[in-house]
Amino acid sequence: MTASSLLAVKNLHVEFETYGGTVKAVRGVDFAVQRGEVLAIVGESGCGKSVTVQSLMGLIPMPPGKVTAGSATLDGVDLLTLNPKAMNQFRGKEMGMIFQDPMTSLNPTMTIGDQIAETLKVHRGLNSTEALSIAKDLLLKTRIPEAERRLQQYPFEFSGGMLQRAMIAQSLACSPSLLIADEPTTALDVTIQAQILDLLKELQAKEDMAIVLITHDLAVVARTAQHVCVMYAGQIVEQGGVDEIFYQSAHPYTVGLKLAMPTNVSDYNKTLNPIPGSPPDLFAPPTGCGYAARCPQAMQVCHQQNPPLYPDQTNPGHASRCWLQDPKAPNVSALYQPNLIASDRS
Amino acid sequence: MIKTVDLKKHFLIGKHQILHAVDGISLDIAENEILGLVGESGSGKSTFGKTLIGLHERTSGEAYYRGQPLPAKFTAADHSRYSTDLQMIFQDPYASLNPRMTVLDIIGEGLALKGIPRADIQQRVGFWLERVGLHPDHMSRYPHEFSGGQRQRIGIARAMIIEPKFVVCDEPISALDVSVQAQVVNLLQDLKQSLGLTLLFIAHDLSMVRYISDRMAVMYLGSLVESGPSDAVFFEPKHPYTQLLIASNPEADPAIERTKPTQHVIGEITSPVNLGPGCRFADRCPKVLSECHNVTPEPMLIATDHQVACHLYAG
Predict the structure, then answer these.
(1) Closest chain A residue to B244 measured between Cα atoms?
(2) What is the dihedral of CA A326, A258, A276, A266, to 10 degrees?
(3) Which whole number is the average pLDDT over A244-263?
(4) N or C: which end of chain A has fewer CB within 10 A?
C-alpha cells in the first residue's frame, strides 16, 4: 500500500490445473506487510492462505500450479518474476519460512547442526567451523538447552517443540527481514504452543523481523498479531488491525467465526453458533460474494456481484469485502457482535 | 455409571522397558454427564479411553460399568455383549472409515452383526443420517465423497445407531475447521440430552472442553492431577500443572491476551518409560517441594467434588 512496505502483494491470482478442471485457489489478493510487524492470515482449510504464501516463496509446483496475475515485491524485488536460480539465492536469505510439521520438513539423514550450517554456507559463504559455531548461537537464541550436544543430533532425537525451535533457528540463520510461519504451532501442545509463540514475538522485536503468520486459530491471532487478513474462498474478505477485526468486525464471515468459538466465560446457557453449509467449490467460484450462500445477511446483490473492498471510514487500514458496507446498503449497525468485548467480561 | 479404581495400562517396549501409559487412574463418571479429559499428547488420555471400553487389555486395576465389573481382557463374547452399551468415536475421520465400504455398510455394520434384516437396517441408517445432519440418499456413497465434518458425522452415526449408553469421544473435533467444530459439538450435546447419553470427551482444546463438559479431568504422564466441575477446574485451577495448562491456552480476545504476562514454561513432558515414585510433574513444577521427588501425591478433596493430587494442598 505505501512505498515503505516491506512486502506488497497486489492482485495475486493462483490457479491449479487438475483433471477435474481449473481450481481458482487464490482470486485477487492484496496485502502489505510493514517492517517488524506480525501480520496474521486467518481462514479455514482450503481458503487459499497457504497457497498465497507458497506462491511468494516460489514453492508452488508449476505445473500444475500457475500464478495467472498479480505482483509481489519484497524490498523492491518482484518475487513472482525471479528465475529459479535467483529465487534460490533470495529464499532463505531475505525471507525464511517455517512449516506446520517440523518432523517432515527437516532432513532425517542430516544432523540438526549440519542443516543449519548448510544455510550459512550457501548464503554467507562460511566454512564448516564458522557455520557450526553460528549454528550453536542460533540454537541458544531459540532457547534450546545443551546446544553443543544438540547440534550433533538427528531430527528423530528431538521432540516436536524442540524441532520447531530448530527450524526457527535455521530460518533465522541469515537474519531475514521476513519470516513466513505456516501454522507453526498447529501440531504442538498448548503449553509448547505458548512457548513457541512467545519465542516468535520476542525474536520479532529483537531482530526487527516481520512475520506473516498463517493460522486457522483466532486465539493464536489474538495472542500474536498486530494486523490481520481474514481469507475466505481465495479472497481477503476483511483486513485491519487486530482490535478492529475482533471488536468491530465488518464482515459476516468474521462475525460467524467468532460466534462458532466458545468464549471462556462461565455461562451455561450460551450455545455455539456453527456456520451452516460449507465453502464454495473453487472449480467454479460463484460470480457473487463467495460467502453469500452461508451468510445470514445475504441480499440479492450478494449472489450476483462480488463486492469490492470497502474501506472503513473511521479506521484507516480496516476494510471489508461486503455489500453491507456500501452507502446504499441497509443500516448494518445491527450486524451482531458476539460478546467478545473485554468490558463485557469480569 | 462408569467407575475405575487404580486402572493401569503398561506397555512393554523392548525387554526391560515399561511404558506407563496409564498409571493408576481412579475416576467416576455419573449417569448422563459429559466428562472432559484433557492433557498433552502422550499423557495417556486416549489409552485410558480405549482401555475403559476394552480396546486395550488392562494391566491392573478395576473398571465397572453400572456396578458390574468389566473384564480385564475382552473376549469376542465380551465385545459383542458390551458393544451395545459402550461405543467410541475416533479422532481421524479419514482413517477410521473403511474406504471400500458404503456409508450404509459402515453405519449399519453393528446392526448387521446382530442379525437385523437389511430393510430395517436401511431404514435405521436413513433415520440416523438425517439425525446427524446428512441426507438419507447419502447411504450409497463412499467415504471419499464426504468432507471431514461430514465424515465425522458418519462416525457419530455409526456409534449412535447401536443406541449405546456410554460413548468415548477421542478428539472428535481436532481435525475439523472452527465453523464445523461447532456443528459437531452442538450435535453431541443434543444427542446427550435427547438420548440420556454419558460421554467421555477427550480433547486438548481447553476452551471447547470447558464449554461442552459438566466435569473436567486433567491427566499428566498417565496420572490424574486434578478433576472437578468444569468451571471450577478452568477458572480456579489448583494443581500447578493445570494452572500452567490454562495459562498457556490462548483466548480469541486481543485485549485479554495483551494483559497476560509472558511466561516461560520450563521444559516439556518427560518420557513415561520406567517411571519411579514421586510426582510426575516435579521436574517442571515452579512450586516444587522436597517431598515431590520421592513421594507420589494422593488425590484429595479440596472442595465439593474437586480433587487434586498435589503436596501443596496436604495438611
Answers:
(1) A191
(2) -140
(3) 88
(4) C
- pLDDT tens digits, residue range A136-194? 988 888 888 888 888 999 998 888 888 888 888 888 888 888 999 998 888 778 888 88
pLDDT at A281 over 70: yes
So what's the ipTM on this one? 0.80
> Which set of grid coordinates corresponds to residue B184?
459437531
Q: Which of A56, A150, A164, A57 is nearest to A106 (CA)?
A: A164
Determine if residue B32 is left, alpha or beta; phi over 0 gives left, psi from -120 to 50 gives alpha, anything else beta. Answer: left
* Exposure string over A245-281, b if 16+ CB within 10 A, otherwise e: bbbbbbbbbbbbbbbbbbbbeeeeeeebbbbeebbbe
Beta strands in A85-145 (DSSP E): 95-98
Q: What is the DSSP letter of A189?
A: -
Q: Are the C-beta atoms of residues B46 and B84 closer than 8 Å to each other?
A: no
CB-CB neighbors (< 8 A) of A232 in chain B: none
Measured between beta carbons, which residues in chain B are less than 8 angstroms from residue A218? 178, 252
In the three-class reduction of DSSP (H, G, I as helix; E, B as strand; rest coil), residue B266 is classed as: coil
Query: To the nearest whole number, what is the mean pLDDT of chain B?
Result: 88
What does the pLDDT look like over A100-139, one tens digit per residue? 888 888 899 999 999 999 888 888 888 889 899 989 988 8
In this complex, which of B181, B207, B269 lies closest to A264 when CB atoms are compared?
A: B207
- Give the C-alpha separation, B216 to B171, whole Å: 15
pLDDT tens digit sequence for B132-142: 888 888 899 99
Asked whether the CA dihedral B230, B235, B239, B241 is positive or negative, the reply is positive
| Average pLDDT estimate for A220-239 | 93
Residue B266 has pLDDT above 70, yes or no: no
Residue of A nearest to B229 (CA): A266
The DSSP letter of residue A216 is: S
**Could you give the CA distance from residue A345 to residue A215 in angstroms, rounded to a whole number?**
26
The count of other CB atoms within 10 Å of the CB of residue B289 is 15
Strands B86-89 and B166-170: parallel
Compute the distance between CA of residue A311 and CA of residue B256 in angstroms, rounded to an integer.
27
Tens digits of residue pLDDT in B192-226 = 999 999 999 998 888 889 989 999 999 998 899 99
Torsion of CA B276, B277, B278, B284, to 10 degrees: 10
Q: Does A221 touch chain B (CB under 8 A)?
A: yes
- What is the separation of C-alpha B267 from the centre of its chain, rounded to a whole number of angstroms? 25
CA B304 to CA B302: how far, in whole Å?
7
Amino acid identity of A271? T
Backbone angles phi, psi at A241, to 5 degrees: -65, 160
Decide if A39 contacts A210 (C-beta within 8 A).
yes
User: Cβ of B180 and A274 within 8 Å?
Assistant: yes
The three three-digit cell numbers of residue A172, written as one number: 533465522
pLDDT at A340 over 50: no
